[in-house]
Amino acid sequence: MPRTHVAVLDEELPFPLTSGKRLRTFHLLARLAADHRVTLIVHLQQDPAEQVAAVRAMVEAGIAVRVVDRTVPPKAGVGFYTRLFGNLFSPLPYSVATHASPAMAAEVAALARDDTPDVWHAEWSPYARLLANRPEPWVVMAHNVESLIWERSADVESNPMKRWVLREQWRKFEQFEGWAYRAATRAIAVSAEDAQLMADRFGATDAAIVDNGVDTRHFQPVPARDRDPFRVLFLGSLDWRPNLDGVRWMLDTIWPAVREQESRAVFQVVGRKPPKELRTLIERTPGVELHADVPDVRPFLERAGMMAVPLRIGGGSRLKILEALATALPVVTTKVGVEGLRLKHQEHVTVADDPAAFADAILDVTAYHDLACRTAQRGRVTVEREYDWDALAVKMSAIWSACAGQGATVRRAAVAA
After folding, report:
1. By C-alpha distance, which of 296, 295, 367, 371 is closest to 328?
2. Residue 263, Cβ density class (10 Å: 0-12 exposed, 13-18 middle, ≥19 buried)
3. Given this model, what pLDDT does residue 316 score?
4. N or C, which end of the chain has less CB nearby within 10 Å?
5. 240-294, pLDDT tens digit by residue?
């Protein structure tokens, strides 16, 4: 029996595994390629040094690759602000306008002509635009409900001009997501909360749920005695607005209170592509270290005394919390940080939302570290049971197969007519 052919559209190849989105995409596709014929259509890597190794990793995983000869424009420099200004006159959100490129549209048309997929899969909502007129079934993956991120970004922005721009992007994304989630054969969310939001806000009443996950064999639990209780870890892509906001909020309002009470505390910021202004802020803040673009995050997870997730903006769910708990590392987070995960305050993690409470929670973990590690161990048990990639790939496989079946039924009906 021939395998279902699924064409996946995305920004770039999900390798090396240096961001939550790349981790999710790679781990699911690598498993799905065992039972489906997967073709990945992407732009060139933004970092050219990654290209050869990234292609090799996909081929080794059994994934066919079609690379469009174009790089997504960077979100920095004069060119970025020129494009952003031009986008004020477009009905599309900036991300949709820059990612759904004519070059990728041509590649989609070429694949449809040469080897028509049974199912198309937009791995990020902006790529759904390229599938608008496809007769075959297609799905859209919502790593986040993007309009929620723009809404929360506008809510915490103090600069009036920036707040206006953020609200414009929020408005455009609400319109775009409303179309994408309803037009797709199936919309896919990463949490029950996001699926409910997609139903309430956009009328996507049949959204499937495939949670974020973690490789529980790759991330192993570490005994409390091997951890430094005074080492506080932040982990995440530092070119993503919610993470940048969280780190800045931590440095401005939370970390000074921690250091005032505990001078031994060290805050380690670990992530890819930190902007220059963040580097400067970290250099000026006592007790803070920056570790940029590290090849493996496990040494940091294994030595830290806790992970801090001070997020005020976000959607979807945080893979960094799953990775931390997989190593039995205590987690202090906000409600936004733990949103979308089936984890409870004081049973698996510690939740605090205002700066003083967040600082107190960090200090409590340093003072009662063994107790915090026992809480994290319960989190590890939950992660093993509910968030392993193998089980999540089975869910995605069922969605693809069902959509392919719908497409086959439509084709048979058309032939009969």
Report:
1. 371
2. exposed
3. 73
4. N
5. 899 999 999 999 999 999 999 999 999 999 999 999 999 999 999 999 999 999 9
Averaged pLDDT of the chain: 94
From CA 368, how far away is CA 385, in angstroms rounded? 27
The b-or-e profile of 210-232 (16+ CB within 10 A means b, else e) is: bbbbbebeebebbebeebebbbb
- CA distance linking residue 65 with residue 214, whole number of Å: 24
Exposure b/e, 103-121, CB count within 10 A at least 16 = b: ebeebbeebeeeeebbbbb
User: CA–CA separation, 37 vs 20, rounded Å?
Assistant: 24
* Cα separation, 341 vs 212, whole angstroms: 9
Alpha-carbon distance values, 305 to 330, 338, 362, 371 (Å): 7, 19, 10, 12
Beta bridge partners of 284: none
Global pTM reads 0.89
Sign of CA dihedral 8, 317, 28, 2: negative
Average confidence (pLDDT) over 58-65: 98
| CA separation for the pair 152, 312 (Å, rounded) | 8
CA atoms within 13 A on the CB side of 239: 11
Model pLDDT, residue 1:
60
pLDDT digits (tens, 9 = 90+) for 78-114: 899 899 999 999 999 999 999 999 999 999 999 999 9
pLDDT tens, 160-179? Answer: 999 999 999 999 999 999 99
> Shortest CA distance to 272 belongs to which of 303, 253, 247, 255?
247
Before 299, cis peptide (omega within 30)? Answer: no
Beta bridge partners of 65: 40
